[in-house]
Design a protein that fits this description.
The structure holds two protein chains of two kinds. By secondary structure, chain A is mostly helical. Chain A has two domains: 1-36, no CATH class; 37-124, no CATH class. Chain A is 60% helix and 0% strand. Chain A is built from seven helices and no strands. The longest helix of chain A is centred in the C-terminal third of the chain and has 49 residues, at 126-174. The termini of chain A are far apart. The relative contact order of chain B is 0.13. Chain B is an alpha+beta fold. In chain B, a hairpin with a 2-residue loop joins β2 and β3 (44-52). Chain B has helices spanning 19-27, 53-56, 58-64, 68-86, 103-112, 114-124, 150-153, 157-193, 227-237, 264-291; strands at 4-13, 37-41, 44-52, 92-100, 127-136, 196-199, 213-223, 244-252. In chain B, the strands form two sheets. Chain B has a four-stranded antiparallel β-sheet with strand order 2-3-1-4, sandwiched between helices. In chain B, strands 6-7-5-8 form a four-stranded antiparallel β-sheet, with helices on one face. In chain B, α8 runs antiparallel to α9. Classes of the chains: A mainly alpha, B alpha+beta. At the A-B interface, α2, α3, α4 and α7 of A face β1, α3, α4, β4 and α9 of B.
Chain lengths: 175, 293
């Protein structure tokens, strides 16, 4: 399967077990076959490919959850942390060591948590987040400005009072 | 109702599939070790196999999809079948776990979407997918030790430390600059031969393997015959740039190019829409400010 055009005659599948750390990635991974990296396969068979609504429909939300989960397996950890979804660090099903220790993750519990995550992500849409924040900041800015103005005003008037008093005193002394 | 359902892996042209494909498919095993066959209708063929209904009904599937081991075995079996067809002819991979109650339902599906499938097959004829990942390799840990130059600098220890930190920071910046250069060069070389590009998510999670920090993970649609040239160009593009690793994988069946709306125009449109939204919300904010007493 090195070159599909020349694959008319049966070409032996690459059977060598390739270490994912294998050097010369190109040579070792050239034919995909059974040696292809699981992350590469998963991002294709789960995330790409034609979607057909068959007779067995996996609940849309479940697919969404699965996708989120897999993204966390293959996607950037930093990015996920940035999004505030770093709960997987405590998710036994996502840590193989933990998986061996526990009899099996409680799916119901896990899905509840995932659903909550999805909800909270939805809630964090720009409209939901930014508008109130802007209002708050606008309000605060306004308040700050007013405070500052009053402070300055009181300062000015205090200065004026001082000046007036000094003048009065000077006038009285002259008399 | 039978105890089996039909799992479909891919769609291909029935008229363009020689009997040799049937022969070839007899040699692979599908999901759950089942024999693979072609289900034909409307000049198209779905590559399919029977699977036990009890393992693939809604509730079973829901649970099993969360089982990493099960998922891996199904994903690899799915991929192996797609690859077998891909080695012979143009193929449209279907998403994992595409299930119908029986073959007739698969034929219905082929009939319903025949036109779309034919258009896609035409677009992907003679094209294969290549994966290109660029990794930035971190400088070897502890190599720029700040204290190493303490004596020679002759300054205060504090200043030496700061100098060391600066050097460290610079080598980090250099690594990123090299990565950026590499990404641009690699993409430019890839586009000499590629007709389309799709960006995948970066691989940094548990399943990501190999040294370095993945900075791009792209798929390119490349003419079948240009594979060697493509690889040579892409891998040669980053030559001379230290701290960079370029990994090519392929050829893949065109998994990443089966979405009909995945064109550059759509991406541009999407970007445009996002920008419009941004400016609209920006205007709102401005209005509020003006409106405030």
């Amino acid at each position: 399967m090195t070159d599909p055009t020349s694959a008319r005659q049966p070409v032996p599948r690459p059977t060598q077990s390739v270490s994912p750390y294998g050097q010369g990635s190109s040579a070792s991974l050239y034919g995909q076959g059974s040696s292809a990296n699981l992350a590469d396969i998963l991002e294709r068979v789960l995330d790409k490919g034609i979607v057909i609504a068959g007779d067995i429909q996996i609940n849309l939300l479940d697919i969404e959850l699965l996708t989120i989960k897999l993204r966390l397996l293959v996607a950037s950890v930093d990015k996920a942390k940035e999004m505030g979804i770093d709960w997987w660090e405590h998710d036994p099903s996502l840590s193989s060591r933990a998986r061996e220790e526990t009899a099996g993750p409680s799916l119901a519990e896990e899905n509840r948590r995932l659903r909550a995550e999805v909800e909270s992500l939805r809630d964090r849409s720009p409209a939901a987040v930014e508008a109130p924040a802007d209002d708050r900041y606008a309000g605060r800015a306004e308040r700050d400005e007013r405070d500052e103005y009053e402070k300055r005003e009181s300062h000015v008037s205090r200065e004026r009072h001082e000046r007036d008093r000094e003048r009065r005193e000077r006038r009285e002394r002259r008399r | 109702m039978s105890a089996d359902m039909t799992y479909s892996y891919a769609v291909t042209r029935a008229d363009a599939t020689p009997d040799a494909l049937d022969e070839e498919l007899r040699r692979v095993r599908g999901v759950a070790g089942a024999p693979v066959r072609l289900v034909r209708a409307h000049g198209l063929a779905a590559v399919a196999s029977p699977v036990p209904a009890r393992d693939f009904d809604e509730s079973a599937l829901k649970d099993r999809l969360e089982d990493m081991e099960w998922l891996e075995s199904v994903a690899r079996a799915h991929h192996a079948v797609v690859e077998t067809v891909f080695a012979r002819t143009t193929v449209l991979p279907l998403r994992l776990a595409t299930l119908h109650l029986d073959d007739d339902r698969v034929r219905d599906m082929l009939a319903r979407r025949a036109e779309e499938f034919r258009t896609l097959l035409g677009r992907l004829d003679g094209q294969v997918e290549w994966g290109v990942k660029v990794y930035a390799l971190p400088p070897p840990a502890g190599s720029p030790v700040p204290a190493a130059t303490a004596g020679s600098a002759g300054g205060s220890p504090g200043r030496d430390y700061l100098r060391g930190r600066q050097r460290q920071r610079r080598s980090g910046e250099d690594a990123w600059r090299a990565a950026r250069d590499a990404v641009l060069r690699v993409d430019a070389e890839a586009r000499v031969l590629a007709v389309e590009r799709v960006q995948h998510r970066l691989q940094q999670g548990e399943l990501a393997t190999g040294p370095g920090y993945n900075v791009t993970n792209d798929a390119y649609l490349v003419p079948r015959g240009s594979g060697d040239d493509f690889r040579a160009r892409v891998e040669g593009a980053a030559e001379g740039l230290g701290g960079i690793r370029v990994e090519t994988t392929g050829p893949w069946a065109p998994y990443s190019f089966t979405a009909p709306e995945h064109t550059d125009d759509d991406i541009r449109e999407e970007t445009e829409r996002a920008r419009r939204q941004e400016t609209e919300s920006g205007t709102d904010a401005a209005d509020e400010e003006v409106g405030a007493p």
